[in-house]
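Sat 14:20. Reprocessing the chain from the morning session after the first attempt stalled halfway. Input below, unchanged.
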Amino acid sequence: MNSTLKRILLILGLTIVTALIGFGLYLAFKKAQVPLAPPSTGPAAPGGQLPTAGGRPAPGAEGQPTPAGGLPTAAVTTPGVAAPGYYRPEPITKITTDQTLYASMNEGGNLRYNNAADGKFYTVKDGVATPLSDQVFYNVKNVTWAKNKDKAVIEYPDSSKIVYNFETKKQISLPKHWEDFSFSNDGNEIAAKSIGLAPENRWLVTTQDDGTGTKLIEPLGDNADKVIVDWSPSRQTVAFSNTGYPLGADRREILLIGLNHENFKGLVVEGLDFQPQWSPNGQQLLYSVDSARSDFKPELWVANAYGDAIGSNRQTLGINTWAKKCAFADESTLFCAVPRNLPTGAGMSPAVAADEPDDLYKIDLKTGLKTPVALDQDYTFDSISYDATKNKILFTDHRQTGAFQVNL
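Finished this time. Tokens:
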């Protein structure tokens, strides 16, 4: 059975299982207000189409083989006490009991989140949660945070979007047909997809955080769903596009999109369901993909992703988890939450592993050494951040409310 057919059958099976689970939950548990301001509608843009790789020769860079031996065994231990060979943190503390949604850490090492119970946004500093604003934000659907400023794009179920600056208490509205936001590293600009009704009116755009100075970066055409908006810390790349040279059933070339129509090298990835995360300075890219080789479970890779070095030093880390479940400590160190057991096809349908307990590992990208971090109980990491100034990990758990801190 070839990998494409195998993938189709797995997707069909997972779809049926998901539908049955959803129906069961509906039977078992059967028993929004207006946002701050509606956004304005932006003008339609000229037509176009995201370029593809065309007849370029297929890149020949090959990844390194998966390291033998797999991960060292992790275990739940007494707080502050690690078994031999473990990285021993201080006791894990719960820093808030709020319903912590859309959690993110700013550059000061403080957690920011939306409390679903009262609709307010909070920050946690020195173990104390205080409101970022007295403003109440009802029925928030999604939040995209700026990294170094307390500023966010807030989205609502009716497709309304606003940019709210918690430092100045000011807000501006964004067009309803904009989606998939990403802040520049300084927090002053926003990239997004502008999705018009017609393909010729679909563009990758950037704008100032006050809604002015909108620029058309690349036409998306019919390929909008193949683009991931993710502004790099180096500012070189604003998005990724899965429209590169076709390399086979499971192999893809990902194109890096810049601000000025640059012709960057493509990044070859050994799988599907590409999920990226930039290193702190934007020189490297951590990403996860899945393939028939991994039974369609997500596996982590790392590669250079800047300038002429794009795609070089590409290697698998031998870890089955998603890039979003990792946090960079620096350019050569990662902390990753790794599901203890992953079913076949989890890379295509992450929901099947949503409640799976995670083990936490410290990973040295230079040596490949993977060191378990002792935890005091089972956790299922929903978000994870690392604070370099205080050498601590902040995370939220999928199965319980609140946020947690691990002092390393």
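Residues 337 and 360 are 5 Å apart (CA to CA).
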